[in-house]
Specification:
single chain; alpha+beta; Alpha-Beta Plaits; 2 helices; 5 strands; 41% strand; EC 3.6.1.7; acylphosphatase; Acylphosphatase-like_dom_sf
Length: 92
């Protein structure tokens, strides 16, 4: 069984005002991932995503393949898994 991991990711580029959070939510549900996503005041988008590493990679590929989203860079760090988390949310 593949290990469950949790990542904190900050996305840079054209990531606000293009449906990025809603696409993230849809893809997270599609791939069985949990966590959250929110816009930041500096124009970036912040996400914590948890699940199988392969599924997180698939979510990132799905986001990058969108015509309206342009991810120029990502800052990623590993976090401790939150065992009680059961869903993916869009935060305000």
């Amino acid at each position: 069984m593949e290990e469950i991991v949790r990542k904190h990711i900050v996305f840079y580029g054209r990531v606000q005002g293009v449906g990025f959070r809603y696409r993230s939510h849809y893809a997270a549900e599609q791939f069985g991932l949990t966590g959250w996503v929110r816009n930041r005041y500096d124009g970036t988008v912040e996400m914590e995503i948890q699940g199988k590493r392969m599924c997180i990679d698939a979510l990132l590929c799905a986001l990058e393949q969108n015509d309206y989203v342009q991810i120029d860079d990502m800052d990623t760090r590993m976090l401790a898994v939150e065992a009680e988390e059961r869903s993916f949310r869009i935060l305000d």
